[in-house]
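ESCALATION

Customer reports they have been waiting on this structure for their group meeting. Please prioritize. Original submission:
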Amino acid sequence: MSTTPKIFITGATGFIGAHTADVALKAGHNVRLSIRRAEQQQRLEKAFASHLSQIEFVVVPDITNAEDIRKALVGVDYIWHIASPMPTPGGDVRKHYVEPAVRGTVAVLEAAHTVETIKKVFIMSSVVALKPMGSFGTADTVTGE
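Update from on-call: job pushed to the front of the queue and completed.
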């Protein structure tokens, strides 16, 4: 049994999440990365190739599903919830960004509340919450998304 705490990270396929996972791995932490689709794993394995022994992957297709998240949290000590939908320019921001982001965060908190090993939950937002769409670039320097 490992004495190194395990961190569950959502959003590692995005800009902030990828950089956060990179810092955690370089600091020696074990991580369980949540991905929405199995095909995302290969890209992350390539991005974090020198740390594969520290990484587990779990597919959680719907971050708003507390039961799926709860299953992914078994054996986890800390949660870093960074995942959030990205609104598209011209889309309904409330419907396609705000409401799913809130439901996802609530689901993560509900799931964490039921898992006894969880010590802390860290929730991160981004500058996207403060600025209009179209004012940011789209390329991710770590994962290429």
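Sent to customer with the following note: The mean pLDDT is 87.
Escalation resolved.
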